Write the structure tokens for this entry.
Amino acid sequence: MLSYLLKRLAIGLVTLFVASLVVFAVLEVVPGDPARLMLGMGASEDAIAALRDQMGLNQPLALRYLSWAGHMLIGDFGRSYTYGVPVRELIAERIAVSLPLAVMALLLSMAVAIPVGLFSAARRGRASDMAVMGVTQLGVAIPNFWFALLLVYVFAVTLRLVPAGGFPGWSAGPGPAFQALILPALALALPQAAILARVTRSALIETLSEDYIRTARAKGLTRSAVLYRHALRNAMIPVLTILGLQFAFLLAGTIIIENVFYLPGLGRLVFQAITQRDLIVVEGLVMLLVATIILVNLVVDLLYAAVDPRLRSPR
């Protein structure tokens, strides 16, 4: 188990290093002069020279990368040119919205998808299975921003059960805060639940055709016991893979949803930083999201080992 963990950790660190090289090259080398890009073409040469000096752009490329990566490792993401505050303060403020939203959406997705996948796999080929798969196909096809607008119209405008947008802040209490996040979480969760339900069904159907499942049935185990005690656990590896990818998407890919609901999260901060050409914020956010995705993948790999004992044995 330890060798498996160390191997996955080494792969994650190498991936993070390569990603840092790509991010640094794309945002600081490829576009040309980052200072001129941030200030605009109409900026004076003195202002551009001052910003270049502030960002350390006059240093050699290798030294710039080492300085940038070293500051990233200690949590120093630089200072936002637009907002005039440290980037980590902006991230800490926005992640307090995006992280609970992503967790809520993931839990809702699991709560819907796994029972639906079990139900459909247990009734493979029947009318109920075809109906469920038709609904999930519709869920995959519908864009989440359109679904978000539909939710706003039904639950906020028509029924007036929840606010249509905005975030009161956690200082207003957990009740109002979670109430403001419920519609965005549903808008993110249900399309993802459709994908997860289809993956769960496919993995279960494949597992149910294995020899050990037939042996379990031959021993007299009930259909539900075979399904829940034997098939589900062995079908969880592809499900865990999709869950890891979904969490990364829910945390990093919420730009449209956060703009629809006017939520001050990471997705909206990315959008604002790009439109304002604040490359310092973009660099910090991209590297944070890359590190988060790598960490999530590491956790998923550990869950693989917990689900499948064969991965824990040395080879």
